[in-house]
Amino acid sequence: MNTYIKKSDNNDRKINEINQHKSRSLMLFNFKLMQLFIF
């Protein structure tokens, strides 16, 4: 039981990191797009 909880916690952490990375790159992408449209 305990090891299962630890494993899922690890997976959640990985998923969170991946999601953070995605949203960060998405924000950068949107920012570049906006710059293109503004200038």
TrEMBL record:
Superkingdom of source: Bacteria
Protein name according to UniProt: Uncharacterized protein
